[in-house]
Amino acid sequence: xxxxxxxxxxxxxxxxxxxxxxxxxxxxxxxxxxxxxxxxxxxxxxxxxxxxxxxxxxxxxxxxxxxxxxxxxxxxxxxxxxxxxxxxxxxxxxxxxxxxxxxxxxxxxxxxxxxxxxxxxxxxxxxxxxxxxxxxxxxxxxxxxxxxxxxxxxxxxxxxxxxxxxxxxxxxxxxxxxxxxxxxxxxxxxxxxx
Length: 194
Fold this sequence. Notes:
Layout: E1 5-6, H1 12-28, H2 32-39, H3 43-50, E2 55-56, H4 58-68, H5 72-77, E3 94-97, E4 102-106, E5 116-123, E6 128-131, E7 139-147, E8 149-154, E9 157-162, E10 166-171, E11 175-179, E12 185-192
Antiparallel strand pairs: 1-2, 3-4, 4-5, 5-12, 6-11, 7-10, 7-12, 8-9, 8-11
């Protein structure tokens, strides 16, 4: 499974994200080598991500969130300014994994102290994202498809979801999200920390 990165020019979000990743590693007192062992991500990839020389993939961020005990939304909220009670649609942070065709919009106002969050996901036709572990074991997810068709694999079972369908599960192991139709799929992911 590939957990590498997509090359891109300097991006302010990647710069803030890289700085936060470096801070987290420092807070834990880990060397790049120790973090590489814990996450399964190469030292060079970690170093380049911390220096914002690359834009990390969803899979890479998921591995780091697992090591740091955070959801991806929590990590991304830590690089934003003061949390707000309302985040207007135009101001909701959007992050794109260009390698997989995945676009993620953080709908909920960010707040590190809350257990629930809403995320909008979009997968391009043919897009397929596999996560080898949840960012937090036992994470509760509700996946509600708004447009298109989505195949979700968890605990060795594949669930085919069409527009309007909703799947609820607790995530303990690998998961896979795949655009299952000829058109893009758009869905809401409600995440609740255990």
